[in-house]
Amino acid sequence: MAEQTAYEKHVWETLAEHRLAYIRSGGALGHLMEGEPLRDGRRFNPMCLLRTAGRKSGKQFVTPVMYGNLGGEIVVVASKGGADEHPAWYLNLKANGELAVQVATQAFTAGFREPEGEERAAVWAYMDGLSPHYAKYRGMTGREIPLVMILLKDEIPVFSE
């Protein structure tokens, strides 16, 4: 694995701080994360927390990701910033299917699916409208970046450390 650039290190440190604030505040902080201005001038991106079980360790991992809401389903992109490998949360999800999601101050068990064909194209168009970074990420890698559609199920307590 290549050594991280100063920018990549900064991004991962920022996400770790964001995750901690989101969890420690019970979701009162962290649902909106400030970023660089997008085409429409928007600077704040909606963030949710995904909790997955490690495919090898069984340990619970919580990952902040930007999301969209399309037709009542939460949409997340397994982009890993355009890296050539899938993010660990996605590999964990595919391996064992366990998923919980926290959106602001509410958490839920959840199911998931991956859109295909025309629906996948429509979901990409929607997510590209939320952030121009997704098109850039797709251009940076040869892998097919997964889209994950999440359907919330039963309410559970918010995540803790």
Which keywords apply here?
single chain; 161 residues; alpha+beta; Pnp Oxidase, Chain A; eight-stranded antiparallel sheet; 8 strands
Word description of this protein:
This protein is α+β, with helices and mostly antiparallel strands and 161 residues long. The protein has one domain (6-156): Pnp Oxidase, Chain A, CATH 2.30.110. The protein is built from four helices and eight strands, in the order αβββββαββααβ. The protein has helices spanning 6-24, 88-96, 117-130, 133-140; strands at residues 32-34, 44-53, 60-66, 68-70, 73-77, 100-103, 106-113, 147-156. Strands 1, 2, 3, 4, 5, 6, 7 and 8 form an eight-stranded antiparallel sheet that branches. Strand 2 and strand 3 form a beta hairpin. It is globular. The mean pLDDT is 91.
